[in-house]
Amino acid sequence: MEQTREAGLYTRRFGPKPETGAPAAVLVHGLGLSGRYFVPLARRLAAEDTPVLVPDLPGNARSRGAARRAPDVGQAAAALAHWHRRLSLGPTLLVANSVGCQVAAALAARAPGLVSRMVLVGPALDPDVPAWRQCGALIRDAPREPLSLLGVAVSDYLFTGPLRCAASFRHALRDAAEAFEANLARIRVPTLVVRGAGDTIASRAWTGRVAGLVGDGRTAEIPGAAHAAHYSAPDALAELIGKFTAADPGGSA
After folding, report:
1. Which CATH number covers residue 184?
2. What φ, ψ does residue 70 adopt, rounded to 5°?
3. Residue 147 lies in a domain
4. Which of 219, 205, 208, 213 has the alpha carbon at shortest distance from 188?
5. 252: in domain
6. What is the Cα–Cα distance from 135 to 107, expressed in whole angstroms?
7. CA-based nearest residue to 99, from 129, 76, 66, 82
8. Taking the mean position of all CA atoms in its chain, how far away is CA 193?
9. N or C: which end of the chain has fewer CB within 10 A?
10. The whole model's pTM is what?
């Protein structure tokens, strides 16, 4: 793993160095977190000679200094697009988790030329679920995740800061109510929506709805995993991603 700072965002690189205009995979973390919990999946994707980049979004963890306050979803997507262009990446595979799916959707809707396909893992937030129930679902999910993930998450939340996490949650709720579904409806790239079978946050009905909103969506479920399936079941998710990218014309990412 190589660690760099690109366009103000702390970035982890795995696999071969991405060539200008060539495809790569970009992994987008959830609210208040860093890209650390994507490392198991990043390593597996990179083992197939895929360039993999995992940025910390602005205002989060090691990119905390890239924003004076917690950016909203649209601002995070704009910063990610700027980062993408500075790196001269070709259309990429976006793999996102939780609220990171809202950032990925905003990016794909606003800058479609930057994205070749998407994988949304445990997309949040369902606009029909009240905020207090979303928080309750997160609490119920915690015991279903590996203990090591909880350590990573707590450390990242403290690094990002509770006030920024709270502000980011408010921004995410507003985006879910006002823009997320509209952004999904504008997406035409092939999109795989994945949930862990034990996910208490992204229900089967909601993931089906997300897949139905995009122009070319499909769903998959990983047994034995919960909300962070990319961390607890990286081999299973990497296999799903491999089949998904191989099934679509245009090469693998």
Report:
1. 3.40.50.1820
2. -60, 120
3. yes
4. 213
5. no
6. 26
7. 76
8. 11
9. N
10. 0.94
Q: Where are the alpha helices (DSSP H) in 111-249?
A: 131-141, 147-160, 162-178, 180-185, 204-213, 229-232, 234-247
Owning domain of residue 218: 2-247
CB 46 within 8 A of CB 17: no
| Cα–Cα dist 27/175, whole Å | 20
Phi, psi of 223 (to 5 degrees): -65, 145
User: Is 253 among the domain residues?
Assistant: no
**Within a 10 A sphere around the Cβ of 52, how many other Cβ atoms?**
29
* Cis ω for the linkage preceding 125 (within 30 of 0): yes
Number of Cβ within 10 Å of residue 8's Cβ equals 16
Going residue by residue through the chain, which has 253 residues, state the pLDDT in tens, using 9 for 90 and above: 899 998 999 999 999 988 777 789 999 999 999 999 999 999 999 998 899 999 999 999 999 999 989 999 999 999 999 999 999 999 999 999 999 999 999 999 999 999 999 999 999 999 999 999 989 999 999 999 999 999 999 999 999 999 999 999 999 999 999 999 999 999 999 999 999 999 999 999 999 999 999 999 999 999 999 999 999 999 999 999 999 998 754 433 4
For the chain, state the CA radius of gyration: 16
How many of the other CB atoms lie within 10 Å of CB of 47?
Answer: 12
| The one-letter amino acid at 85 | R
Residue 45: closest CA among 204, 244, 200: 244
Tokens of 61: 């963890």
Confirm whether 74 is domain-assigned: yes
